[in-house]
Amino acid sequence: MESLNIDIESRDNNINENYSLWNNDDNWSEDGHEWSNFLGGTLNLWNDVIFPRIKKYLQGDILEIAPGHGRITKYLLDFSTSLEIVDLSENCIRACREKFGGKIKYNVTDGKSLQMIKSRSKDLVFSWDSFIHMHSSVIDTYLNDICKILKPSGYAILHHSYLQGGEEKSFDNIGGRSNMTPEHFKFLAEKNDLNIVDQENIVNGGHVIHSYGEGQEGTSVDTISICKL
User: How far apart are alpha carbons 143 and 23 in whole angstroms?
Assistant: First the structure.
């Protein structure tokens, strides 16, 4: 049986590192769209990579974790009955509020919990390009709260890293990615009473692969995990 040893100092260092980076407006030169350029823009990322994989779950009361400046938020808004976001960065929340006004609900989180979200209130919990930077212990605490806020028929769709043997400091690894595998994510999900519905490994923005290798320099491998109660 796999076990999880929580290093609180390492967890908190990871949260502080993410806060320092993403709360700095200088790191949002194109409002986050710079991280979609390899696909020709955020619209292509949504149409070709994200939407085909989540469309059957995209409805009702939605929570987005760590939206940054809202590059994906604008698309979620079109499909939701209500949309709520949480981010550890006050500046990211401010940027989203300036874009979306009263259309959505805003929360600043501590970078590891969702205690401000009402129990059993969400049909979908979604996050893209954020869990890839989170340490295992941070993901563990988020999954614990996701279990509490999902409706009985709800789903969580989380884009996370697929990296083994990287540096402890995520941003010393390719694309700032943390050490994580689909198998360990599944362990964390089940530890927190969530069931894995599907896991798909992706590389270079959406091309499906079926095994992990070191790959070429500049190539990142990630996983999309879909969970339910």
Answer: 23
Q: Three-state SS for 224?
A: strand
The percentage of the chain sitting over the pLDDT mark of 70, rounded to a whole number, equals 90
Q: Domains of the chain by range and CATH?
A: 45-176+199-211+220-229 (3.40.50.150)
**166-221 pLDDT per residue, tens:** 988 998 988 899 999 999 999 999 999 999 999 999 875 554 443 333 443 445 68
pLDDT confidence tier of residue 106, bands split at 50, 70 and 90:
very high
Give the chain's length.
229
Measured N-to-C along each axis, helices 136-149 and 182-191 cross at an angle, to the nearest 10 degrees, of: 50
Residue 10, Cβ density class (10 Å: 0-12 exposed, 13-18 middle, ≥19 buried): middle
pLDDT at position 214, please? 40
Among 121, 60, 116, which Cα is nearest to 87's? 116
